Structure to design on (580 residues):
């Protein structure tokens, strides 16, 4: 097994995950099979109970694990299906070691960070690295490991020790370390400064980890003199100093790495010349060219609770981008704080209220994403009402679907008190209720999580047609509340259609308003499985409806049951033949 470790220095947020994912794409283009591991040094068992404002969105895998959003980047770039073990946290490692200690597996030893914690980390990495994630049999060729945080962080020390041991045990021909650092430009001086990188490399070597490649983040292309200086002072060949400058589209990064022959540097370190081919990124480059030359805008308003941080809706944003590229439109996203749509904001801050409503009314389509808690809920209900009454294309995801049901009950069933028991436990008209199998005492890992099967009950519904008229689909879930089955009949009588349900027929999965041009809610999260070449059908439908091209998409999907080749007008816009 060959290992590529990606670490970060100087500051956090440099884009280690994008670097790791792009290295993976580059190695895949060389004919190598790749897997990924993300290490998060925090004590949480997983990301499930962490606020979006702390670490961005919680990404959900097929097996129901709630993981760091970086695993979403890996899956999207590499088109893989990862598992819970591909995300290592200190909480998981500690729990595993303590359970062994309680069972007596250490035979009376004094359990310590070294060697018990570090050995567990190393063994975990070596075990997971051998598990295929691309649907093929046999182990991958390369495992890319991203170490979260910044070199020098106290909480990372057990992991740096373990990875140092791993590099020694597998040997230098099987371990390549890429260190991502910052090369800042001070406005007063106006030159690229190398001192932070030099200090970061010194710290890294002090941890018994030797970098093979330095990936320098900067606002502009790294100057040759700066490369030469880093090469001389960090004792690396100049071709192993890679410039990762700012770009408007992260899809450029694999091409940037290829242009600087990063694959050759990695191949030389790992002795891959016998199994690696020349990289072929023609299809990727074609995709980048298409996305860079989109001019006709489509404007989508995301009305949510966590709009101050775009990473809170990262997968939604990526899925919208995938769909807009497929439809050949330039995506414009307006983040609308749902609380700013409420009348209470009008009294406190009329400017914020007017700005929020202006963004909503200017949108071609509206998306209500997932979330928890009662803050901003009334604003989301107002957004759903506005989209329904004004024939604006609408997609509600998870909480967004529940909001659509509540709004429909209030407006069409004339039940002004209709609500979710999450927000109003004693409501007289509970449209949304707590799932009977859920836990009210433990929060972590107790929701309905992971890939679940959804069966279509209305065959001619827009959602069924978008999915290619399949009998069922498998999508990822993350919720603990659901539509109240006792209210389904009255809602359907008022004009709401429950187009898809779970295997029991009791749990509502997709809701539609048939009389509306496009008004769909999904209990699952379609964004989690969206890929550049495998666009989420429901999000594709939202973009198409927002552009006035929904009928063309529906007709194309109907004539191509695999739902991957969608022809609009004279050119194929979605499909395996002209994507990758």
């Amino acid at each position: 097994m060959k290992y590529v470790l990606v670490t970060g220095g100087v500051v956090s947020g440099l884009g280690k995950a994008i670097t790791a994912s792009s290295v993976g794409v580059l190695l895949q283009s060389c004919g190598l099979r790749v897997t990924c591991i993300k290490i998060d040094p925090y004590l949480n068992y997983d990301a499930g109970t962490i606020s979006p404002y702390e670490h961005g969105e919680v990404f959900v895998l097929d097996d129901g694990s709630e993981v760091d959003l970086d695993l979403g980047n890996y899956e999207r770039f590499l088109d893989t299906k990862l598992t819970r073990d591909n995300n290592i946290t200190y909480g998981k490692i500690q729990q595993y070691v303590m359970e062994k200690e309680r069972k007596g597996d250490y035979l009376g030893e004094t359990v310590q960070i070294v060697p018990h914690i570090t050995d567990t980390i190393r063994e975990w990495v070596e075990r997971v690295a051998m598990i295929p994630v691309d649907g093929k049999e046999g182990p991958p060729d390369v495992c890319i490991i991203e170490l979260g945080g910044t070199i020098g962080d106290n909480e990372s020390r057990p992991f740096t020790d373990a990875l140092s041991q791993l590099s020694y045990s597998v040997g230098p021909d099987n371990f390549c370390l890429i260190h991502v650092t910052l090369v800042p430009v001070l406005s007063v001086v106006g030159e690229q400064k190398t001192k932070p990188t030099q200090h970061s490399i010194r710290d890294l070597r002090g941890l018994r980890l030797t970098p093979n490649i330095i990936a320098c983040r900067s606002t502009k292309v790294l100057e040759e003199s700066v490369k030469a200086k880093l090469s001389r002072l960090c004792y690396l060949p100049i071709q192993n100093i890679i410039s990762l400058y700012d770009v408007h589209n992260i899809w450029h990064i694999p091409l940037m790495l290829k242009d600087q022959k990063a694959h050759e540097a990695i191949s030389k370190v790992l002795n891959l010349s016998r199994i690696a081919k020349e990289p072929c990124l023609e299809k990727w480059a074609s995709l980048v060219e298409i996305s860079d030359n989109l001019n006709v805008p489509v404007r989508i308003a995301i009305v949510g609770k966590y709009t101050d941080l775009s990473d809170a809706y990262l997968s939604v944003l990526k899925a919208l981008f995938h769909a807009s590229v497929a439809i050949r439109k330039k995506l414009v996203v307006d983040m609308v704080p749902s609380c700013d749509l409420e009348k209470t904001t009008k009294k406190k801050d009329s400017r914020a209220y007017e700005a929020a409503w202006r963004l909503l009314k200017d949108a071609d389509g509206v998306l209500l994403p997932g979330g928890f808690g009662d803050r901003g809920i009334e604003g989301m209900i107002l957004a759903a009402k506005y989209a329904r009454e004004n024939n604006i294309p609408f997609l509600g995801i998870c909480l967004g679907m529940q909001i659509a049901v509540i709004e429909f009950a209030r407006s069409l069933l004339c039940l002004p008190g209709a609500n979710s028991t999450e927000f109003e436990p004693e409501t007289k008209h509970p449209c949304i209720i707590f799932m009977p199998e859920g836990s009210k005492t433990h929060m972590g890992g107790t929701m309905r999580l992971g890939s679940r099967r959804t069966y279509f009950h209305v065959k001619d519904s827009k959602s069924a047609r978008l999915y290619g008229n399949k009998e069922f689909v498998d999508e990822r879930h993350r919720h603990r509340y659901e539509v109240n089955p006792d209210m389904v009949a009255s809602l359907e009588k008022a004009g709401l259609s429950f187009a898809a349900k779970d295997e029991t027929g009791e749990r509502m999965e997709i809701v539609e308003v048939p009389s509306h041009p496009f008004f769909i809610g999904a209990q699952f999260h379609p964004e989690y499985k969206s890929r550049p070449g495998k666009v989420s059908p429901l999000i594709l439908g939202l973009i198409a409806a927002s552009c006035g091209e929904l009928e063309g998409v529906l007709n194309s999907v109907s004539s191509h049951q695999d739902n991957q080749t969608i022809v609009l007008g004279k050119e194929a816009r979605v499909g395996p033949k002209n994507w990758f």
Notes: Residues 563-580 have pLDDT under 50 and may be disordered.
